[in-house]
Design a protein that fits this description.
With 101 residues, the protein is mostly beta strands. It contains one helix and five strands. The protein has a five-stranded antiparallel beta sheet with strand order 2-1-3-4-5, with helices on one face. The longest helix is centred in the N-terminal third of the chain and has 10 residues. The chain starts with a strand and ends with a strand.
């Protein structure tokens, strides 16, 4: 598993969006999206840091995410952990290639 860095982009469209300071790690864009959704981001775009495609474009991954509260799934729950925990849910909308960051 290779650790990759995904930067959240702000803006309405991928072409007009800018990088933010929020960086999430994961081996895939979905893993980073789950982390972002758990921290409260609802609709977001990711760009992998340091990666450019062969045709000199950048891939932007667009996700929608939410959080639902569920009961902790195991019976050996630590005493400091509440009974209900947040579980992130994400859905990939699409991917877009842009020429400039």
């Amino acid at each position: 598993m290779v650790k990759k860095y995904y930067i959240i982009r702000s803006g309405k469209s991928p072409e007009n969006s800018k990088d933010t300071e929020h960086v999430f790690t994961g081996s895939s864009p979905r893993q980073a999206a789950l982390k972002a959704a758990k921290r409260g981001f609802a609709a977001f775009m990711f760009r992998e840091r340091g990666k450019r495609n062969a045709d000199n474009t950048y891939t932007i991954h667009i996700f929608k995410g939410s959080v639902k509260w569920v009961n902790y799934p195991r019976e050996n729950r630590p005493s400091w952990l509440p009974e209900k925990v947040r579980m992130p849910v994400v859905k990939k909308e699409r991917t877009v290639r842009i020429k400039e960051i």
